[in-house]
């Protein structure tokens, strides 16, 4: 056992009696950057800047709450039934991105209907911001030493040419583990780049397809990374995140094909040009 390695303190700083955790700081950073990106793109798309501010006022807290409810529901019998007082301790980790997506999508559907806006236009604008938030948010798992993979050797991690601070943080209770948080974070960056290229270069892009591409891209990466993790939420013998990932991939592809064949999907670039004119 290597006793010279000290994990990163999960508390970033103190505000009097209040401890501000790195997990919350990192999640907040992801939300802030996502908000900046989505407001900037909404202006390009001809929407008033306040549109997404109004949406995010509701979507962000609902997404966090639904992500926590999703996680707690799966871990109820394993932990929370005996420790209900820990349900609110979100700073210790334990939020599920699929729960957040459910909450966000439902909120956006309702918001779009109330405001008379296109759900698909809103989600297309938000897609790159969502994956940015997820890429950054995974580093909160890094600080908390959670969402890691199976045990590996230090030499394995060094062979990946990782910075020492990552290798050292992957030393948990006397063993080293796969930094699956990093694999997913990097994959999310790849998906972000793909979305930005598609948005700028693919002239045949239809409304809704940027968001559906995000769903497909993220789900592919999550499926493979989830298979390496040791803390998966289980549905019987199956990792639920993998089941959901496959379902989302199929649903997104079917939706994309259906919308094209039925003529429901307008040209993405025609809408952008009309918005500017």
Write up what this structure looks like.
The protein has 277 residues and is mostly helical. The protein is built from ten helices and seven strands. Strands 3-5-4 form a three-stranded antiparallel beta sheet. It has a two-stranded antiparallel ribbon with strand order 1-2. Strands 6-7 form a two-stranded antiparallel sheet. The longest helix has 32 residues, at 49-80. The protein is globular.
How would you briefly describe this protein structure?
The protein is mainly α and 277 residues long.
Which SSEs are present, and which pair or pack?
Elements lengths: L10 E5 L2 E4 H23 L4 H32 L16 H19 L3 H26 L6 E2 L1 H6 L4 H6 L1 E2 L2 E3 L2 H22 L7 H18 L7 E2 L2 E2 H22 L6 H9 L1
Antiparallel strand pairs: 1-2, 3-5, 4-5, 6-7
Helix pairs in contact: 1-2, 1-4, 2-3, 3-4, 4-7, 4-8, 7-8, 8-9
Mean pLDDT: 91
Which regions have little confidence, pLDDT < 50, spanning 5+ residues?
273-277
The biggest beta sheet reads: 3 strands, antiparallel
The count of DSSP E runs of length 2 or more, i.e. the number of strands, is 7
Rough outline? globular
Helix content: 55-70%
Count every helix, treating DSSP H or I runs of 4 or more residues as helices.
10
Trace the largest sheet across and list its strands: 3-5-4
Which strand-content bin applies to the residues? 5-15%
Order of helices and strands: EEHHHHEHHEEHHEEHH
Rg measurement, Å: 20 Å
SSE class: mainly alpha
- CA-to-CA gap between the ends? 66 Å
């Amino acid at each position: 056992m290597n006793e010279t390695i000290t994990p990163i303190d999960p508390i970033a700083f103190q505000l009097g009696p209040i401890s501000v955790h790195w997990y919350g700081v990192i999640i907040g950073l992801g939300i802030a950057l996502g908000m900046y990106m989505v407001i900037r793109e909404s202006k390009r798309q001809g929407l008033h800047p306040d549109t997404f501010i109004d949406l995010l006022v509701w979507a962000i807290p609902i997404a966090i709450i639904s992500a926590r409810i999703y996680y707690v529901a799966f871990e109820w019998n394993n932990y929370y039934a005996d420790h209900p007082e820990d349900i609110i301790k979100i700073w210790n980790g334990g939020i599920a991105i699929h729960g957040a997506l459910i909450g966000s999508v439902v909120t956006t559907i309702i918001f779009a209907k109330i405001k008379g806006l296109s759900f698909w236009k809103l989600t297309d604008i938000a897609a790159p911001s969502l994956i940015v938030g997820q890429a950054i948010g995974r580093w909160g798992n890094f600080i908390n030493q959670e969402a890691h993979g199976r045990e590996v050797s230090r030499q394995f991690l060094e062979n990946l040419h990782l910075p020492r601070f990552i290798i050292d943080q992957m030393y948990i209770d006397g063993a080293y583990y796969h930094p699956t948080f990093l694999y997913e974070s990097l994959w999310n960056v790849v998906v972000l780049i793909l979305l930005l290229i598609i948005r700028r270069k693919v002239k045949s892009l239809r409304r809704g397809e940027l968001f559906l591409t995000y769903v497909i891209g993220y789900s592919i990466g999550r499926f493979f990374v989830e298979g390496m993790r040791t803390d998966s939420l289980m549905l019987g013998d199956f990792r639920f995140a993998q089941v959901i990932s496959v379902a989302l991939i199929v649903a997104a592809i079917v939706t994309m094909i259906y919308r094209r064949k039925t003529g429901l999907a307008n040209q993405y670039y025609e809408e952008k040009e009309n918005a500017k004119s």
